Each structure stands twice: as structure tokens, then as C-alpha cells.
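Q: Structure for this?
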Amino acid sequence: MTAPLRLGIAGLGTVGTGVVQILRRHAALLEARTGRAITLSAVSARSRDKDRGVPLKDYGWEDDPVALARRDDIDVFVELIGGDEGPALDAVKAALATGKDVVTANKAMLAHHGRELAEMAEAAGRVIRYEAAVAGGIPVIKALTEGLAANEITRVMGVMNGTCNYILTRMQATGQGYNALFEECAKLGYLEADPNLDVGGIDAGHKLAILAAIAFGTAPDFDGIEIEGIQHIQLEDIHQAADMGYRIKLLGVAQRTGRGLEQRMQPCLVPADSPLGQLEGGTNMVVIEGDAVQQLVLRGPGAGQGPTASAVMGDVCDIARGLRLATFGQPATTLETLPAARSALPAPYYLRMKLVDKPGALAKVAAILGQAGVSIDRMRQYGHSDATAPVLFVTHKTSRAALDEALAAMRQTDVIAGEPVALRIEEV
Amino acid sequence: MTAPLRLGIAGLGTVGTGVVQILRRHAALLEARTGRAITLSAVSARSRDKDRGVPLKDYGWEDDPVALARRDDIDVFVELIGGDEGPALDAVKAALATGKDVVTANKAMLAHHGRELAEMAEAAGRVIRYEAAVAGGIPVIKALTEGLAANEITRVMGVMNGTCNYILTRMQATGQGYNALFEECAKLGYLEADPNLDVGGIDAGHKLAILAAIAFGTAPDFDGIEIEGIQHIQLEDIHQAADMGYRIKLLGVAQRTGRGLEQRMQPCLVPADSPLGQLEGGTNMVVIEGDAVQQLVLRGPGAGQGPTASAVMGDVCDIARGLRLATFGQPATTLETLPAARSALPAPYYLRMKLVDKPGALAKVAAILGQAGVSIDRMRQYGHSDATAPVLFVTHKTSRAALDEALAAMRQTDVIAGEPVALRIEEV
């Protein structure tokens, strides 16, 4: 029997506590499956006295996560502190420097410092595993890095922020507006301390940067993502998209193009009857397309104690079994740095605007679209009680540049009221 | 740089040819990701002269797969011959006996001889990998064995035969009957040489036996599966299930119960708006439920050249990277043998019968159900033009034994015509 694998866990919030629970509940199962005992040597968190519902007195305690990372009675440092810099980053570096493997759920840290950390780990012969950082309980890092290793990945997409998907699907189901549902999420504890991480698309963007790195062999490039949050989505858009057979999702899309790496995280329309369109509530979904596998869809809980702890412990089991590979699936020194490509591939768009109710208004808008080379697939004008008429277009495939040109021209006219809404329609 | 990993491929049908294509197309990608070249030393197939669309002259040739397995210029024997015994089994044993790792897509062989082969492999320090054996391109073996290793798995379910799902969804979409669609599948080449492997549920049963072994730490027990095919599903059932909000799927379900291992592969009703209910055509879906992860849904192509070759090559990449683990996720000698438990957990059922059109017929049937303790959730009687009236019941949860008692009693009466149809409704 191999020696036990000894863990140190930094951060005892929901996920950390969940990991301790699994270690206690499934000690025998884990040993049967990995061939060695998995033990917990010591933990670190802010408050030693807080009751976390699991007994901690059997384990060593460190106030400082860096001190935990340096202990010589741990083999794996489990980082569940969070934050892209500060104690999390310091402790992970200390762990690597003192010969520990690292398991982390920290998407922000990897999106911003992934390449540097991967190089450190590989130089030291250590591994960094981070299944829990992307899409909670879904083993998508493993699927992409290992299961699909023989594929040239052509596109990765995902709905990876449960809070945003909860808000968008509840807007549809209840007819409540964005603000009311934002407040509901705040009450339910669904929001990060800085809610912009959720509703601004930042958190989901971190996840996309990590997936894109693995998929395309590039260094994680969070700054290269076009990010747009869901704060401006109105109930009208939800309903009118539905009326046209679509759902609005905060969708991440990454693909490698001839002009660089395209990464977008933005509200998009997807067909209501597609797997992404059918995804409701806080569930996450990742779609991976490869030249051999065609399309793989993974769906599961994107957050929560059990699912996230499941992912953390899956990584721990891999290390216990001796399954070791480069952080992003190939040596960090070989990761490319590609220019960020603004979405160049043409797509259909959803366009909503309020037309001033006077003769020739629609003709003028249609003419502008035509002059910009944007052709119209479907158009609907809705009944109205005020002086403006809600009008909806679904365009044929067009470039974003042509669309922006048309939008700029429309703003110069006196026939539209307020700002037009343009949302990309993603073919999935 | 590590030495190249040298393959020998036995079986050059669609999948084998697809594997050769990936090796040729992605040599550089595979080397970048695994850190070593992956080369093909030799192949074996029935006909040396057949044009398979890929050049084979660069590789050695063996008429006999056993001779290929024994060659000393291969590290990994890739078995794509198929069949639970005969040349496939002989060659795999020869490969293990001569120190080769094995990658196979052979579900029948593993369902029937999995434990024996796993013991051989583990005694020899070799691995057997078989991602392609279950659900084609979906990396479900990896998800279950590795990603969810820290979970007690509570249930595994899946739609894992694309041909059956194609037939069932086309019956719904086109209104054609089973026989017409069976003929269509035969023409399209969707059927195994022995079509009963597909439509009889055998092929899907092999896959379920493998998943259950990993999930529950038991030796694969194909003979313990209750198997029922789709041959008896009538168009009426498809339509009437839809009318009640359900779809009919050939669904595999495995769960560990207090009385043993329950494994069923049978046509079931699932809610039309569930992920399983929405699965159309030849796509496969596997649902895994674990105590920590809750529910994971994996969806992708269940067959075809690219997807299956992707899975085979994912296994090869794991071996190239040195990722090695026990065949069923824990040592074969520790796999339990559990009694086969006939589905004991109560479930709602769909019951369809033709009532003889005379006074008191419905009352009699209802009384029989009541006497057996089967209570009715919903009932519909449909219009009819002959002397029998189609009647449909959805029961509340009941045991199969109680239902069988009621069915037996009904058969003794003179109020039903023909054989009643009873299909389980699976909560998913």
C-alpha cells in the first residue's frame, strides 16, 4: 500500500467545508478507488472559532495560508480562498516552491496568472489541478484536456454563471424585471461580494479564458475577452426573443480564427429548443466541438457545496492515483499568445428598437440596414399605446462591423427613440 | 523527449480507419499534448487489399490479430474487431500476456469478460482502456472513473443505442410504424449484423453493465440486467405517451439497492421536457447521479467514425501521458458480486389497454387495479371506431409486483382485448 496522500486545505467556506465532509464520509471509498488513504493534515481559514458544522480539532491549524502551504506534512495544497491575487496567489506559489501539488477552485487566479503558475509548477515537477474552477461539478477540464485530447477543438461555448442564468430564466418565467430578480438573488446569497463579477460576466469570463487556453493551446487571456453583462437585458427582449423562438443566455464562446483568438462573453440568443436554450435556473452547460468528436454537451450544477467539492476531490483522487499532466494539457512554455480577434465571423442578429410613430419611419430604418449590407430575415412590429412602435428584426448573417455601421446611421435619424438593442444569435 | 508510443491496430472498419486518420492528421498535435510521438507500427484486418481510403503501406501487416498483439514493436494493442469472444478476446489476452496495454471499443467483451480481463491486466501491470465502448464520443468512462471518483454514485442512466433512439424519435416525428423504420435503419446501415443487438437492447445492455461496474464497484454483470427491446413499441404508445407529456426511450438504469444491484434496459417513459426526453435521433445521453455532484448529464454522438475514434485516441493519449489506473476504477480483485435485484423501487407506470365496449368494463379494470393496490393518477379514454376503446392509465407509484398482479387479473376477464401494455415511467 502506498503512503497516504496528505492534504492541507486553505479556505473553509462552503466548498472547503464540503471537501472536509467528503474526506470524512468517504475515507474508505477514496482509499478503495485510489489505492491509498487520503488524509487531512491541517487547515487554514480566517476565523478559528467559527462553527462550520464539521469537527476540525483533529487537524492542524494555520492562521496564515502561506504557512499552511509550506508545512512539510502536506503533499497537496488545496486552495479555496479565492481572489486573483493576495493570499491565494502567495500561498499557491509557496506551495509550488516547497514541492507541493496544488488543487484550486480559483478561476480568477488562473485566468490572470495561469501561464506563470503553470510554468512554476512544471519547472518544479508539480501539478496544478482546477476542475472546480470551471462549471462547478461538471468534469469539463478533464473532458477537454484528456478525453478529447486527440481532437482539434473548433469551438467551446458555455453558460457558466448560474446566477445570470437564474435571473434570465426567471425573467422569462415570472415576468419580473432584471432589478427585482437581482434583489432576489442578493437575498438568496446567489451573488458574489462584488455582484459585477456575476452579472457583469467577469466570473464566467474567467472560466472561458481557462477553457480557451486548454482548447487552443494558448496562454489564458482574460483581457482579450469581449465581455458584456446582463444588466441591460430588458423584459421586452426576453419576451420578444421567445416570440421568435429564442432564449437569451449569457453565453461564452471561444474559437480560434485566422486572425487570432476570438473570445466573447455576452448575452446571446440561442434557439429555444437547443440544449443551451433549454437550460434553466442555476445549472451550467458547456458545449465542446472538435473535429473528431463533433459536439459534446456537458450539463450539471455550476456551483454549490457538494458539486464543487466533488470536483476538488476528483482532482485530489487523480493526484492520489498518480495521474499527472501539464496544467493546460501541454507544457506551459509551448502555449501560444494569439492576438485577440474581435468577432469577425458573420452571425445573425436580433435588433430591437422603438420607431417614432410617423410615416416612413420603418422605410428609413430598412433603407439604412440595406445600405449597410444587412439583410433582414424576419421583422415584427408590435402593437403599442404610446408614440413609439416596438419593432424587431432578425437579420441574416452579417458582420458586426456592418451592423455597427447601420446602428450608427440610425442614431443620426429622427425616427428611432432611445437606444436600439442588438444581440447576436448564436447557432448552436 | 520520451520514446514514441507504438500502436498496433486490429480491425480496420469504420472506427479503425478513423483512428488511422487521426494519427496521420494530428501527429504534431498529439505529440504536443502528450509529450511523445504516437506511431502506428502495424495493423491487422480481414482483407489486406481492400481500399479503406487511408494509405496503409507504411505500416506492418498481420493477417492474425493474435500475431499483431504479440509483436514486440507495439506498446499498445488497439482492439477494434468486436465480438465478445473469438479473435478479439484471444488477441487481447495475447496482448496482455506479452506486456502490452490495451485500448478497445468492445463493449460485449468487457460486459462478459471484464473482470477476468481486468484481473489479467492488473496482475501484469497493464491497463485496459475502453472509453469508446460506451456512448461513442462521450468521455463518460473518464467522467465516472476519474472526475466523479469522490462520489458515491447513486444512479446511472442512459440512452445508449442511437439506432433505437432514432427509431423511437422518428416514429414520433413521422408517424411511421416500427417496422417501416426498422427497414429504413437497415437501408441506412444503422443496424448491427444481428439487429437484435440494437433493437433488442443487448448492445445498450453491454454498455450499462460496464457503467454499473464502475459506478458501484461490482464485477460487470450483463446476465443480471432485465432487458427488453423496443420491438413491441407501437405508434399508439408513442402518441399517447406524448399526449400525457412523455417520450418513450430505451433507457438503461442501474442502481445499487439494499437487495442487490438493479440493472434495467427497457423502454420507459420520461418527461418530454427533461434532457432525456428532449434527446432526438442517434445522439446518446448518460445521466450520472452522485451524492456530492448531484446530477451530471453528458450528451454527444454515440457512434460514428470520428466520435468513436476520438474516444479510442483519448485513451491512447492517456497511456502516452502515463495516466494509468485500474480497469474499473478499483482493483479487479476488490469488485463485488451482488445479486441481481429485480426493480423493487416503486415507480409510476403507463398502462394502455383496449377495453371491450360494454357496460361496466372500465369499472371492472379500475376495481382490479384498486384490489392490487395500484392507484390511478390520470386516466384517458380515446374515441374509437371499432368495438374496443383505447384506455390509458398513468398510475401513482406502485411496485412492479402489484402491477403484474393486476395485469394477470385483467387477463382473466372478458373486458380487455389483446395484451395490455405496461411501461415504467422514470423520474429523471
